[in-house]
Write a structure and sequence with these properties.
The chain is of the alpha+beta class and 101 residues long. The protein contains 3 helices and 3 strands. It has helices at 55-63, 66-71, 77-100, and strands spanning 25-30, 36-39, 47-52. Bound molecules: zinc ion (ZN).
Amino acid sequence: MKTASSKTSVRTCVACGSSDAKQGLVRFVRSKDGKVSCDASGRLAGRGAYLCANESCFAKAAKQGRLSKALRGQISVEDQHELESVFRSVRQDLENKTHEE
Ligand SMILES: [Zn+2]
């Protein structure tokens, strides 16, 4: 039997500390091999961290190294650029979904 609380788990943005993100939070995950990726599905295995779906929180997290801290692993400049572009498209998807409501 599953507990009923799976849907109410609190997700907090590592940049601003907000857990009340109207646009939703984007999950990042670090896999066993140390690779950090943007987990749009929210289902990848590994240590996860969340960011608000907005540019300023991503920029803040990147600038202050909060994402790598939360994920307990370094993120290379290359990876960060890749994350940024994936983050942008995920954010845009979320925005589109919000508008459909
Ligand atoms: Zn935030």
